[in-house]
Amino acid sequence: MRRLCFLLGVLLLSLKVQAQAVETDTPRPWYVPHHAVLQTAGGIGMLAGGAGYALGAHRRFDADVLIGYVPGKYTGDRAFGIFTLKGTYSPFTIPTSSPWQIKPLSVGALVNYTPSQMLNRSRDDKYPHKNYYWWSSTTRLGAFVGGRIGREFATRQGRTRTASAYYELGTNDLYFVSLLTNTKGLTLGQILTLGLGVKVSL
Question: What percent of the chain is modeled with pLDDT above 90?
Answer without folding.
Answer: 52
